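W.,

You were right to be curious about this one. When I first looked at the sequence I had no strong expectations either way, so I just let the prediction run and decided to look at it fresh. Below is the sequence, 350 residues in total, followed by the output.
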Amino acid sequence: MKQDGIWRRSALIAGGLAIFLVVMVLLVNLTDLRQVVWLRVLFGVSALNFTLRAAVPLVLGALSGILCERTGIINIGIEGMMLAGAFAGFVAKVATNDWPLLLSLVFGVAAAMFVGALMGLLHALLSIRFRVDQIISGTVIIILAAGFSAYLFDRDAVAEGKFGPLRIPILADIPVIGDILFNNPPITYTALLLVALVHVGLFYTRWGLRSRACGEHPRAADTVGINVNFYRYLNTTLGGSLAGLAGGFLVLEAVGQFQEGMTAGRGFISLAAMIFGNWNPFGALAAATLFGYTQALQNELLLAGVVDIPRQFISILPYVVTIVAVSGFVGRVRPPAAEGKVYETEGSLQ
């Protein structure tokens, strides 16, 4: 019970803050409070729209980290996996510009997830087979992705078209919230659905139980016949594919084009969301929503011009909130017990 409390504390804090944000948005947009300029800037519909768009890659990145770290593999390479996925999605989209738009976009998503999965597999291979320090391995992934994407990027290439919104009837007619949550492109819906799927998978399936056992007590898992390193390979590869999907979102749904270094630290903010959410998918969703809101707030304050301070101070807001949340506000968190520890079978020790 004590450990359950440790796991849930910061997830509840993040969830409470996210619920507070939604309640304030409803109050401001459905009452006379919308006439107050600074409240409209802080809690307007445009702020919530931008919050969701900013939260999607953070949610996918956090889920990537959860899948890896629940089995005991530290993954700080999410940033690199995102960037590699973004570049792969862009290349695939440019190569298929003459295809029907939907088919071209789906091919781009598949390419982003495939390359992300390859980067995850590389991280697993370095960490498990070659016993490279997992922090170093993740750093290698980031440098590798930044290097090859910058070197191979053709600045004259143009990706034509991106995913458009899919409006869900009836639900999209709900005041304020409906048009924000139920009138979005497909990757946004997929990210929200994946939160529920990963949660159910981790906590209510045999795969999830075995994955968590590998991250908590791999020796005990091995004694009951669980192939620890197989699950670590599997989950790190799956996690890489989700990080690649996050990069694909940036190119194929949000921006529509590729830019060098376009992930801009989102992989590290995803790690913060994972920790703030206490390695729990719904906690990570709440934390990503909070961090996404800080990015939306930055955007709204710069556009509205309601504050008279240098824009550089406004621009650092998301990163300051991330640092404060992880280092001070979360309190005590407990990562998986075997996180970062190489597991060697008894046969390999002889």
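Here's what jumped out at me. DSSP finds 16 helices and two strands in the chain. And, maybe more interesting for your project: Residues 1-7 have pLDDT under 50 and may be disordered.

Coffee later to discuss?

I.
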